[in-house]
What we know:
Elements: H1 3-33, H2 37-49, H3 54-61, H4 65-77, E1 81-85, E2 93-97, H5 99-122, H6 125-144
Antiparallel strand pairs: 1-2
Helix pairs in contact: 1-5, 2-5, 3-4
Amino acid sequence: MSIHTRFNTSLNDWAEVFMARSMHDMVQFIKDSGISMPQLSTLMHLHHRGACGVTDIGEHLGVTSAAASQMIDRMVQQGMLERAEDTADRRVRQITLTEKGRQLIKKSILARQRWMEDLTTALTALEQEQAIQALDLLTRTARRLKPQAVAGNQHSERVPQGEVTEPQ
């Protein structure tokens, strides 16, 4: 088996285990907290992007602004979000996280990452160091890849940077 095939197999195996474990814990968190996946997605969107309008949230979720607005209204009533006037345009209402919303995000991240602590303690210090080096290399390289321009394109283009060479 070629190194390319072995690497892809190993990377796919890791991605599968990582996603399965992370999603399992995330789904359990959603069930335990009583929120829906679109609500969690909205909270995460606001956590990462900051305040935004209903239209932006609707586009993020792939729903109409009316549907997004109804969900946001429920989340406001539940104390997760608040609507505030945009300081630049008083006609526009910005959606922001409340303290309860920020706490839900914090708990969801901890729930998703909890299993990684078990993984960390199962590795020796040397194995952890080897994993750090490999993961740092993968992270740097992945950040340099351009998104695929066309769906179904099997090869991404690299952003020029001499550290990692192209496979032949």
